[in-house]
User: Which sequence fits this backbone?
């Protein structure tokens, strides 16, 4: 299948590579000309010099995947694509947009005859190898047309059409809210282990729990890997944890729906706490986010390392 990919960062670049490996032809564009040339030099890829040039290079009905940061970058990119698209074309937003923005965009684009798909995407920097879990919302006809793309990007049973426009990003929002709670639980548990009276090897314990324990998980495998790379004091990593929006939106949505979500809410507040003083549990979360998503970490200086 032929499609366009706008945004060639950690996720967009790897997704393009996975699509190319599966035989798709991809026209690519990034705001960085060097990045466009780099990805465009791969077999099966065609570089474009603008969003307009990318749209013009595609056969109809055109399919354009937008993989840029949520908010204004996504808003502007979709406007640029829509300006040059035609009725029947399909725009896919694979970023972490707020579902209310997605519903609005779908309505606005439908007025132009453009079909809009929201593809909540999970997999981080490991997606190229393992595949991406795709939570897809949008019109049935558009989703069916794009299924070859989704099936190439996802592992077996890793793609689902979850509902109409907005449902994909709503599902991904809640997914990330759950992620907040899981990260916080691991972080608190390992801080208790780290500060205990016993000379515990946290790398070994993470490895142990991944064999038969009820708390085994991919996140725990990544923590095992982080301890192996960084050492169990995580001295290089500052305990400063960012949040990219989905946790806040999950809490706000829960409040709007009168649904108690204390674990997710407190995990979000704990991220704010991490920005005030040194926190070992925040170091654990920062290390895990770096492992699964390639998120940047702040380097810790010698004065900020936790005392032992």
Assistant:
């Amino acid at each position: 299948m032929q499609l366009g990919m706008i945004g060639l960062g950690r996720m967009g670049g790897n997704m393009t590579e996975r699509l190319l490996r599966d035989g798709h032809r991809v026209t690519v564009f990034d705001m960085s000309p060097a990045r466009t040339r780099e990805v465009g030099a791969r077999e099966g890829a065609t570089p474009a010099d603008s969003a307009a040039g990318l749209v013009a290079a595609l056969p109809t009905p055109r399919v354009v995947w937008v993989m840029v940061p949520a908010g204004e970058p996504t808003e502007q990119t979709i406007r640029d694509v829509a300006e040059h698209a035609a009725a029947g074309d399909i725009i896919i937003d694979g970023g972490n947009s707020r579902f209310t923005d997605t519903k609005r965009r779908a309505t606005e684009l439908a007025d132009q005859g453009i079909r809009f798909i929201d593809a909540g995407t999970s997999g981080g920097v490991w997606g190229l190898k393992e595949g991406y879990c795709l939570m897809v919302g949008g019109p049935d006809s558009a989703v069916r047309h794009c299924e070859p793309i989704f099936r190439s990007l996802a592992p077996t049973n890793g793609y689902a059409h979850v509902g109409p426009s907005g449902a994909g990003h709503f599902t991904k929002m809640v997914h990330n809210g759950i992620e907040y709670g899981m990260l916080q639980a691991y972080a608190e548990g390992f801080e208790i282990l780290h500060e205990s009276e016993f000379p515990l090897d946290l790398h070994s314990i993470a490895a142990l729990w991944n064999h038969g324990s009820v708390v085994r998980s991919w996140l725990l495998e990544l923590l095992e890997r982080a301890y192996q790379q960084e050492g169990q004091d995580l001295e290089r990593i500052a305990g400063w944890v960012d949040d990219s929006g989905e946790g806040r939106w999950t809490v706000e949505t829960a409040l709007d729906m009168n649904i108690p979500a204390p674990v997710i809410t407190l995990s979000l507040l704990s991220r704010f706490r991490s920005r005030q003083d040194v926190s070992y549990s925040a170091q654990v979360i920062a290390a895990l986010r770096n492992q699964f998503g390639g998120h940047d970490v702040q380097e810790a200086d010698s004065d900020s390392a936790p005392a032992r």
